[in-house]
Specification:
The protein is of the alpha/beta class. 29% of the residues lie in helices and 25% in strands. A seven-stranded mixed β-sheet has the order 3-2-1-4-5-7-6, covered by helices on one side. The radius of gyration is 16 Å and the shape is globular.
């Protein structure tokens, strides 16, 4: 059973999507990921976008750790229902509306996003069958909706190639955890996170 690891709702069990419909991030990978994000200082007060959200575990973990607002985007009816239950759970603990669930495919969601919409932290955990061209298209749409200094985290199979980053978005770190590889990217602007800001060992 997956759970919220830390923050205001730390230790709270989360609802899971039944069957093999989604590929949830393991607690081990999630704990390592959020340790890095805490070191980067990008969670507290952040506007967070969780694409291909599954159960929403990454988004609600962010809310527990102090994110200002979280958007969960999931197209499947069962999975989006689980997202809503987990959103209600964390909102109840926090005592305020923090997490919003959008039942939508990722591409049209980004197409509909207002020009002024800008997120500080974005998670993409697409299904493994999503090909590299389709992922690159999503990253191109996303690049126009990032705040300065934003962090984008792409979770893929360790056997998948590095994502094709669009202009204005650049990788600054990656890390392999067993069968999972995390790619970290940032807007290519002067005030984004630089290699000098990374904790020791964060580049590999």
């Amino acid at each position: 059973m997956t759970r919220i690891i830390s923050g205001a709702a730390g230790g709270t069990p989360l609802n899971a999507v039944p069957g093999s419909l989604t590929r949830p991030t393991t607690d081990r990978v999630k704990e390592a990921l959020f340790s890095r994000l805490d070191a980067f200082g990008v969670i507290s007060g952040a506007r967070v976008l969780d694409l291909y959200a599954g159960s929403g575990s990454l988004g609600v973990e962010s809310a527990s750790r102090g994110a200002q607002a979280v958007d969960l985007v999931e197209s499947d009816a069962k999975a989006s229902g689980v997202c809503q239950r987990n959103a209600d759970l964390i909102d109840g603990v926090l005592g305020r509306k923090t997490v919003s669930v959008h039942r939508s495919k990722v591409e049209p969601f980004l197409d509909r996003a207002p020009d002024a919409a800008a997120w500080d932290l974005v998670f993409l955990d697409p299904p493994y069958p999503l090909d590299e061209e389709a992922l690159a298209a999503v990253l191109r749409k996303l690049a126009g909706h990032l705040a300065a200094g934003a962090v984008v985290v792409v979770e893929r199979s360790s056997r998948s190639p590095e994502p094709e980053w669009p202009g204005g978005l650049a990788r600054f770190a990656e890390k392999k955890y067993g069968e999972t590889r995390l790619w970290f990217a940032e807007p290519a602007v002067p005030d984004a996170i630089s290699a000098d800001d990374l904790p020791d060992g964060a580049e590999g």
